[in-house]
Amino acid sequence: MVEAAGERDLVSQMAVLRTRTVWERLVVPAFVYFFAMLYPFHRVNGPGRTAAAAGGCCLVRRTALERAGGVAAIRGAVIDDVALGRAVKRAGGRVWLGLADDVRSVRPYPTLGSLWRMIARSAYTQLRHSVVLLAGTVLGLAVVFLAPPVLTVAGLGQPWVLVPALAAWVLMTVTFVPMLRYYGQPWPAALLLPVTATLYLLMTVDSAVRHWRGRGAAWKGRSYSRERG
């Protein structure tokens, strides 16, 4: 996939994350799926303002990094890979982001608790600590991923409710299948996406609550009560 990067100032690949445990198989593919929704790769790789990077594998030109302000420009950022992508693009650099073929993460997140902490660490930061974006995200997750299965069950015997709700559930399932295949998971697991989306909704709210309580994010022995970047 790197061949598609062409002449870029920053090239990054999202490493294939570990999916050995039941919780990893449930949560990890959706993590990448939601990340790609938040930072659509085609928009990141285009000339627009959308920018991001994946820390699993990053290559950046020295001159582009210097124009962006160097490592100092992102030293206070919790999501330092995304911050790097933004800094490089803001300085006029060209960015490419894609999924990896051979780069694999060995970091384990075997339990729901470890996955919860990993996601809650940065979820509210990704929303720029905005209550408006938080509310929009919660509403969006509820409408897009939770309402269709709920209305499908509630609409049994009522075709005007059942048909559009079931169609929406099928559509979300179909869009998730390619990510499951990328992670070597069976396609029926896509039917559980509403369950995973509910977990992500709760993790995102928990991330905001931690911030409001002044606990901020904790990462690699550092605590960020007021994250920057």
Compact summary:
This protein is mainly α and 229 residues long. The chain is built from 9 helices and 5 strands. It folds into 2 domains: 110 residues, no CATH class; 94 residues, no CATH class.
Choose one word for the global shape.
globular
Tally the beta strands.
Answer: 5
- In DSSP terms, counting alpha (H) and pi (I) runs of 4 or more, how many helices? 9
Kindly give the count of domains. Answer: 2
Estimated share of beta-strand residues: 5-15%
Please state the CA-atom Rg, rounded to the nearest Å: 19 Å
The termini sit apart by: 28 Å
Question: What's the helical proportion of residues?
Answer: 40-55%
Q: Give a quick account of the main beta sheet: strands, pairing sense, barrel closure.
A: 3 strands, mixed
Structural class: mainly alpha
**Which residues sit in consecutive blocks of at least 5 with pLDDT less than 50?**
none
Order of SSEs, N→C? EHHEHHEHHHHHEE
How would you write the strand order of the largest sheet? 2-1-3
